[in-house]
Design goal:
By secondary structure, this protein is of the alpha/beta class. The protein is built from 19 helices and 20 strands. It has 3 domains: 6-130, Fumarate Reductase Iron-sulfur Protein, Chain B, domain 2; 145-253 and 412-481, FAD/NAD(P)-binding domain (3-Layer(bba) Sandwich); 256-409, FAD/NAD(P)-binding domain, CATH 3.50.50.60. It has a 5-stranded parallel β-sheet, with helices on both faces. Bound molecules: flavin-adenine dinucleotide and iron/sulfur cluster.
């Protein structure tokens, strides 16, 4: 373990942030990572618990006590080996994971959790800097061909694992750049895109072929999901050309708000707004980018996607930014004895909220108000929750000014025509139906078609997508070869 008395001697250290006025001027990352010495001290706090709840709380089961100890001892090279043994892309999770491992840390029972995410961040950034992250091409090729549909974290993790055991892997991506929501969705100020480019280079050196701008099957009439495809490949064609097709297309169908006035100009899905800024940051010239400057912006939806709209609107120079949440305001502090080691219910204030945002809780949207076809306001009503049911508070209607409304109420399902083109069965929520257990894990009802990530589990987290990609790779390898050396 780190230092036997470390948890009593040292406090949890938070990563720093650039000051708000400085970071609002651009779209660059603004988190100041721990120094090597600070990370070492944080590693010293780890108690190397007999039952490491952190390891169980982490969806990829990172071997946290071991890398904490290695960092404490200054053995950074072995720390990255341990970290990479369970996670292909710690530079993604070290930046944008909400860190369920920390919620589960034993120290979190009555003290502050070990800063596990900041240690992960420090390990992987140092590993890249030192040149320790190298391609690992397979020594022997199997001659088996795998098509991965979708280049988000699930598709990337699966492709890397499969290439490393010798399969010929081609990743099909309808957008013009690789990365899924990491690329088009998550703002650059949370994660700069050079981290994805560097991994793509590594994976290409491992033999993975990326075909961007290629749509597999069809999205259906009038779909608003991101799509910069220049060609299309049919489901049957893909099945005929490859030994396995692994569907990692995400859960891109945004939840709509069909109240009166929805068709007014100025009301957009978050996923129309956010990817445009990602593109501009990448150097693309867009005609008529959706911009928030000088506007009263209302973001409907209190989650991460909504918070990303807040941060982007403030960087555009919005006049005001207000975020609505249907549920009541959560408590500032969790009830630890009740929730530990699980993800606690408490108020979460993101760095984007700190940059300037009015947050309204227990509020519902009744109608969009407009003039000359353009949105000018949102009619709202306060709500209460009685016996699990939402009840409107009489007389609480009001109209708030709005020139731009961003709908960030989550995602209902994957795009169903893609699943239908393959004949893949769906679960009750419209996700690709496949279990994650035992023989036949990640396999759909259609022979040689597998599914993983948000397309199988519904909209989730990057770390869950990486887990599913890795596990699906093992299942595909077993299907192709009869057995697999890939980790479960
Ligand atoms: C705005 C936003 C912010 C988020 N912030 C966070 C965060 O901070 N932390 C976190 O952990 N999670 C976050 N998430 C969730 C996280 O991004 C997703 O859970 C994760 O990216 C899912 O990975 P995936 O690989 O399953 O799918 P995706 O990342 O959605 O990737 C799917 C890819 O498949 C492609 N595709 C789909 N269909 C086809 C087709 N037919 N042909 C070709 N290509 C296709 C899509 O274009 C896309 O690139 C956020 C989500 C959003 C929307
Ligand atoms: S639960 Fe916390 S203290 Fe215990 S091993 Fe994990 S990180 Fe260390």
């Amino acid at each position: 373990m780190g230092k036997v008395t470390g948890f009593m001697e040292y406090e949890r250290l938070e990563e720093g942030y650039e000051p708000v006025p400085a970071r609002l001027k651009n779209y660059k990352e603004f988190v100041i990572a721990l120094s090597s010495d600070q990370a070492k001290q944080q590693g010293a706090r780890c108690m190397d618990c007999g039952t490491p709840f952190c390891n169980n709380g982490c969806p990829v089961n990172n071997i946290i006590p071991d890398f904490n100890d290695l960092v404490y001892r200054g053995d950074w090279q072995n720390a990255i080996t341990v970290l990479h043994s369970t996670n292909n892309f710690p530079e993604f999770t070290g930046r944008i994971c909400p860190a369920p491992c920390e919620a589960a840390c034993t120290l979190n029972v009555n003290d502050d959790a070990v800063g596990i995410k900041s240690i992960e961040h420090a390990i992987i950034d140092r590993a890249w800097l030192e040149g320790w992250v190298k391609p690992q091409p397979a020594a022997v090729k199997t001659g088996k061909r795998v098509a991965v549909v979708g280049s988000g974290p699930a598709g990337l993790a699966a492709a890397q694992q499969l290439a490393r055991v010798g399969h010929e892997v081609t990743v099909f991506e309808k957008n013009d750049r690789v990365g899924g929501l990491l690329r088009y969705g998550i703002p650059d100020f949370k994660m700069e895109k050079s981290h994805i480019d560097r991994r793509v280079q590594q994976m290409e050196a491992e033999g993975v072929v990326f075909r961007t701008g290629v749509l597999v099957a069809s999205l259906g009439e009038g779909s608003k999901v991101t799509n910069w495809a220049k060609e299309t490949v049919g489901a049957e064609e893909l099945k005929a050309q490859f030994d396995v097709v692994l569907l990692c297309g995400g859960a891109e169908q945004s939840r709509d708000l069909p109240v009166p006035g929805r068709d007014l100009a100025g009301i957009h899905f978050a996923m129309e707004f956010l990817p445009q800024q990602n593109k501009v940051n990448a150097g693309d010239k867009l005609k008529g980018q959706l911009r928030a400057e000088g506007k009263h912006v209302i973001v409907i939806g209190g989650g991460d996607t909504g918070s990303d709209c807040v941060g982007t609107s403030n960087r555009h120079g919005a006049k005001s930014v207000t975020q609505f949440e249907l549920m009541p305001r959560p408590p500032e502090e969790e009830d630890r004895p009740l929730t530990w080691p699980y993800w606690p219910y408490k108020l979460r204030t993101s760095s984007s909220h700190e940059e300037g945002c009015e947050r309204e809780f227990a509020i519902a949207t009744k109608e969009f108000i407009g003039e000359k076809g353009k949105v000018t306001g949102v009619k709202t009503v306060r709500v209460e929750w009685q016996g699990g049911k939402m009840v409107e508070v009489p007389g609480s209607e009001q109209v708030l000014k709005a020139d731009l409304v961003l709908l960030a109420m989550g995602f209902v399902s994957p795009v169903s025509p893609v699943l239908e083109a393959f004949g893949v069965g769906k679960d009750a929520r419209g996700n690709a139906k496949a279990s994650t257990e035992a023989q036949g894990a990640y396999a759909t009802n259609i022979d040689k078609v597998f599914a993983a990530g948000d397309m199988r589990r519904g909209q989730s987290l990057v770390v869950w997508a990486i887990r599913e990609g890795r596990q699906a790779a093992r299942a595909v390898d077993e299907y192709l070869m009869g057995s697999s050396v890939l980790p479960r």
